[in-house]
Amino acid sequence: MRLRALGAGLNADRLEIYPRITPNSAAYRTSRAACGARAAKMAVMIISSPRDFREAARRRLPRFLFDYADGGAYNESTLQRNVTDLADVALRQRVLQGCGEIDLKTTLFGQQQSLPVILGPVGIAGMYRRRGETQAARAAKAAGVPFCLSTVSLCSLAEVARAAGNQHLWFQLYVIRDRAFMRDLLQTAKALGVKALVFTVDMPVPGARYRDAHSGMSGPRAPLRRLLQALGKPGWAWDVGINGRPHQLGNLEPVLGKASGLNDYMGWLGANFDPTIFWKDLDWIRAGWDGPLIIKGVLDPEDARAAADIGADGIVVSNHGGRQLDGVLSSTRALPAVVEAVGDRLTILADSGVRSGLDVVRMLALGAKGVLLGRAWVFALAARGEAGVAQLLDLIAREMRVTMTLTGARRIADINRSNLIQSVR
Description:
Order of helices and strands: EEHHHHEEEHEHEHEHHHHHHEHEHEHEH
Distance between the termini: 60 Å
């Protein structure tokens, strides 16, 4: 059997295996049977909690995509601590508190939303389902929560705005060397009515993510390895590999062209982030953006004060999901000190390690006003598309209602340190 891929990476026009498989051939019937068996296996999987989406995604995705979302930097110690430290936050159970009506609504940056949750920015989410960013944005709109589009998304800002409107649309921008291109992105975001700008500052250089070299996302013979993995996941290959094209980075089309793909994504990350930037360099962004400005990637109180000093409206306490510098504090442990330092000066959000509605309540009790989801919604998207993201948000809301009832909090504003047995230190 001879294998031929036309084009580079997964954005090839055709993928052919010789000898050709025809509808009347035994190979075709065998392939149909195998696909049916896989589909049946997926159909019987019960998703009853937000964490179940991870396994459903693992079954459906090629390894390089699952590991890219699931993995972290170096030995992944911080990635693991994000989860375990948050799970160790002990809540104070209260009973007979008259919590018959639980109100999950909150207001962030002047806009009311149904949950204190945001679908955070995730690069190349469009590789996890067909035009994945648009599907996630529609689910977020239906649930009444913001969706934040990554700079390095497959779907452009314009495509997402057409699909889901701009009522809850946020945009994430990286620190990149080409300042003129950054200005163009800002102008596009303003023209499309984006409600908030999230400026990520904890990625001046890409983190050392060793899983990627083993999985085929990068490393030797990466395009061929990705192709072979895709052939082993026919459901994904049909939905995304074939029908999810173009596999270009929509927001970067002006600089990469229409033929950009995964290889361009990895190369662009390494070549365009800017480690020379200072806090003062953000003045022009603050001056050029008249909407809410949120600085993402803050762990230290001094950096939080610097963000407040430049006029940021909010920060995200985040270690990039454990994907940048391994060995740093989990967001859970960093959050209380940041809240103490600047909680009265700007709106504090948090991410990293949040996998459930229970985790959302824990972060709120530690002082966050809202919580960004990352892996949780990407796995839900990979497993079931737009319906999966909608189901995830519904599960999170249900878990929050149970948790708030059993901790005596009727409203989001009622959640605070008094709901904890002890503060995280």
